[in-house]
């Protein structure tokens, strides 16, 4: 009897190598304890490396933006602030292994969705967060450093700025936008901009 139970237990445990990515990778949101976002990101990335899950969990992100803070003595300091405190974005194939890895990472309280059932972000939600929904295999841009462009989608939609840098490998341009009266550099995808 114990032999049958042992066989059932070993057959029911799927290893990482046995679970092939199915469907398409989607962006999911994991809720974390406040202040644990970067620790959760690091722990998930270490698990990906240790368990060889690179082909199943593709990216872990804690979106940040530069903000200028004025200290009590009047000095100004640029700091990085989390856009979504208490949340980590994860681009992954949802299956039992990836769900288990994320859900059982210290500091994660669950996935965002009804009854903590993971619900992927919609294309509209991803655009709002500045995540490129579909990046063409090879995107090009008909603009040069110094030219003025307008952002047509994403978190900076409607912003106008001068191109400070172009990164062909990441398919982004760097422009400066006005945040709280101060010019701040942000990266925008090729597909999210148009020339003025």
Task: Give an overview in words.
There is one protein chain. This protein is an alpha+beta fold. The relative contact order is 0.15. Residues 1-20 have low confidence and may be disordered. The longest helix has 15 residues, at 37-51. The protein is globular. The chain has helices at residues 2-12, 37-51, 96-103, 123-128; strands spanning 26-32, 57-61, 64-70, 76-82, 87-92, 108-111, 148-151, 160-167, 172-179, 182-189, 193-195. It has 4 helices and 11 strands; from the N terminus they run αβαββββαβαβββββ. The strands form 3 sheets. A 5-stranded antiparallel β-sheet has the order 10-9-8-7-11, with no helix packed on it. Strands 2-5-1-6 form a 4-stranded antiparallel β-sheet, covered by helices on one side.
Query: Rg to the nearest angstrom?
Result: 21 Å
Helix vs. strand class? alpha+beta
Describe the sheet with the most strands: 5 strands, antiparallel
Distance between the ends: 75 Å
What is the percentage of strand-forming residues?
A: 25-35%
Q: What form results from the Cα inertia axes?
A: globular
How do the helices and strands follow one another from N- to C-terminus? HEHEEEEHEHEEEEE
Amount of helix: 10-25%
List how many beta strands DSSP finds.
Answer: 11
| Integer average pLDDT | 79
Low-confidence region ranges: 1-20
Arrangement of strands in the largest sheet: 10-9-8-7-11
Annotation field: number of helices = 4
Q: What keyword list fits this structure?
A:
single chain, 196 residues, alpha+beta, 4 helices
